[in-house]
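Is glutamine placement plausible here? Inputs below.
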Amino acid sequence: PVVPSGGVVARIIDEVYELCRADTSGTLADYIPELSAVQPDSFGICLATADGSIYGSGDLDAAFTIQSISKPFTYALALADRGVAEVARHIDVEPTGEPFNEISLDPQTQRPRNPMINAGAIAAAGLIKGTDAADRFARIRRSYSRFAGRELTMNDAVYASEARTGFRNRAIGYLLRGANIIDVDPDEAVDRYFRQCSIDVTCRDLAVMAATLANNGVNPLTRERALTGPLVEQVLSVMTTCGMYDAAGDWVTTVGLPAKSGVGGGILAVLPGQIGIAVYSPRLDAHGSSVRGVKACRELSSRLGLHFLHVT
Ligand code: GLN
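Reply from A.M.:
I modeled the complex. Tokens:
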């Protein structure tokens, strides 16, 4: 793909914003009170280029929790800590075609099918190195902050609710411990997953995080390296096949970009070497992805010609 000039990008973002704003379908996540208490009409689209230009429309600086968009970033840190081969012994890279919270372990190896579903994400959280639980989470938070180019913080109220209600995730943690996929205390691994899901971000932050992946792991604003090039490739590969859960095939055909969504209402997408895109709008579809987010990404991809298989 050849991304159009800045002026065209800015105009198309405004058009897509106006078009998608009319869509008020979908429902807020309601498994904890904090997620159903957000402004349902919030909507932001942000695009950051691999050389650091930022374009956007709408609510670019409203905070919301990163939720499952944390998964590729913790997987990235696990890869950096343990190496690709060791992580692969614990977490596979095969798409499931199943929902995000599926209790999906390979019957032969007991490995979670991939790091983008909860089972794989909890396993990745269990592989993070550090001196103690606090240090291991601090390393995750600092790693996300390098991608975002600013100090990110955890939302205490969301974390408390996640921890109070997350029985299914605890069950997954205990299965992983029973199968020796994680060798730490399963409660610690699951608690770390709840904490990482509760990190607050803005639409602008997610666009910069995406642009850091697009820029081969170097944050285009701070010039700080957040991840090595080969690991960026590994993470984007898994996002391509598994990032949108049971909608992955539809996403690849209609948008054609590695991406990740979260039930906080964010979606992040990457065109390697070129741009990062983020959309925030909290009303979700049946897969747990932002309705306007999916629609805006489809429109941006087709109007800007971003599909990674698109030949100009
Ligand atoms: N905290 C949520 C969970 O684990 C995140 C899910 C998501 O964003 N898809 O259920």
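Short version: The chain has two domains: 6-65+201-304, 67-197.
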